[in-house]
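Extended Data, panel c. Modelled sequence:
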Amino acid sequence: MKDLLIDSIMNNIKKYNQYDESKLKLIRYGLASLYLHLTKLIVIFALSYILGITLSLLKFIIFYSILRLSAFGLHAKKSIDCWITSLTIFLGIPYLCETLLINSHLKIIIVVICYMLLAIYAPADTEKRPLINKRKRIIYKIITLITTSVYILLLFIIKNNILENCLVFAIALQTVFVLPITYKLFGVNYNNYKKYSN
């Protein structure tokens, strides 16, 4: 199904455009990535609806996605790994957000530790998307720390357990995904920008 759809789109692109082979490969990769993300989202939201956790999923995804925009982090090597990880995280965490009662002091301790780890390790790149530009890496780090600071501030303002949990889990998950040990566990190269000259 995926290959048929992508082949059909690629044929139309080739028909009306004069792109070289490298550009066509890039377009195909982008289409495959888009297809994977869309199908995953549809499945995850359908299952979250069945489980009755859609609102918590939406809150968690928003907080997590905003943080990931600047902190980047680990991507699974294989599609099946991505599916398993995504289903576990995006169905498991919203469920935990709705059911767990975490002590306020523990929440603060968790996010402060995460803040320090993000200050050290974010942003984390991938082989396919190395963060070569040093200035951009610094900017992404600053944005990540500002975003995390805003989330921590919100923890003091918000008096809603589910929303607080969504914030804490978003920070914690993003932190896990920038740690060198996580890259090692998944067999993925870390600090890929170091292969290139700045």
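The mean pLDDT is 91. This feature is highlighted in the accompanying rendering.
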